[in-house]
Amino acid sequence: MKYIKAGGQDISLFSLGTAQLGPDYGINNAQGKPNSAQSFEILDTARRLGVNCLDTSVGYGNSEQIIGRWLKSVPEKERPLIVTKADRLDVSSKAALKASLRESLRVSKSRLGLERIPLLIRRTAAPFWPAPCSRRGSAPRSITRGDT
């Protein structure tokens, strides 16, 4: 596996997308989502092959909860980087955006069993910083660091 340095950490060039762990997903998916044992096997195989980045989302059914249960079996120093997505953000005002972003982080941290979310991506197609909060840096520092 090849890796890149990001934030002082070696991150695999390949990440495992985990949408298939949560909902019944995919056009050719005739069997539905994998059960917990199958999900853990997928996650263990990715880890064994050197993948140390998992892509998930609050919008992927119970994928975050499955990953959270699996993470309990992985020594903390060997845990992958978790990338999740904020979903259903309220962009009607700066205050609403901050509140919905904090709530999305709270939910993801709870589901994943993490104190911090290392990387958060917006999932919605709506503009992230609409007027009147269109200037750069308008998210509070604690949110951008994942401290909430």
Number of helices: 4
Could you list the spans in which at least 5 consecutive residues all have pLDDT below 50?
128-144
Helicity, in percent?
25-40%
Largest sheet properties? 4 strands, parallel
User: What's the alpha carbon Rg, rounded to whole Å?
Assistant: 16 Å
Mean pLDDT: 83
Proportion in β-strands: 15-25%
The H/E string reads EEEHEHEHEH
Structure, described:
Strand 4, helix 2 (63-71) and strand 5 (81-86) form a beta-alpha-beta unit. The termini are far apart. The chain contains four helices and six strands. A four-stranded parallel sheet has the order 3-4-5-6, covered by helices on one side. It has a two-stranded antiparallel ribbon with strand order 1-2. The model is unreliable at 128-144 (pLDDT under 50). It has 148 residues and is α/β, with parallel strands linked by helices.
In short:
The protein has about 150 residues and is α/β, with parallel strands linked by helices. Helix content is about 30%, strand content about 15%. Helix 2 crosses helix 3 (about 95-110).
Layout of secondary structure:
Layout: E1 3-6, E2 9-12, E3 16-17, H1 36-48, E4 53-55, H2 63-71, E5 81-86, H3 94-112, E6 119-122, H4 141-144
Parallel strand pairs: 3-4, 4-5, 5-6
Antiparallel strand pairs: 1-2
